[in-house]
Amino acid sequence: MRSVILILLFTSISYSQIPYDKQLHFVAGAMTGASIHAVTYNITKNRRKAWIWSMGFVLVVGLAKEIDDEIRYKGGFDIEDLGVTLLGGLSANITFEIFKKK
Predict the structure, then answer these.
(1) Which of 52, 64, 73, 87 has its CA at 20 to 30 Å from residue 3's CA atom?
(2) Domain locations along the chain
């Protein structure tokens, strides 16, 4: 029980240190990646294609958002935001792989 409380305490402390914008990018990447992965895998039954399409789509969506930021807010392109979006997509793909094996 103590270990659960400590884990929750540490995750809430570290969670609060991540800027809100980065959290949104991560969630958007994870949701996009999970959606595309699920659809592609259901159609093709091919894990590799699901990974490629999912991460490719996350990259395109992340780039489009950053280009939009650059146009709207001069100098708004942030490579870290793009990286966090890709990490969200990667985490979704890894999660799918973990649950597919069981």
Answers:
(1) 87
(2) 19-100
Alpha-carbon Rg for the chain, nearest whole angstrom, is: 16
| CA distance linking residue 76 with residue 59, whole number of Å | 17
DSSP string across 60-79: HHHHHHHHHHHHHSTT---H
Q: What is the pTM of this model?
A: 0.78
Cα–Cα dist 102/100, whole Å = 5
Alpha carbons 38 and 98: distance in angstroms, whole number:
14
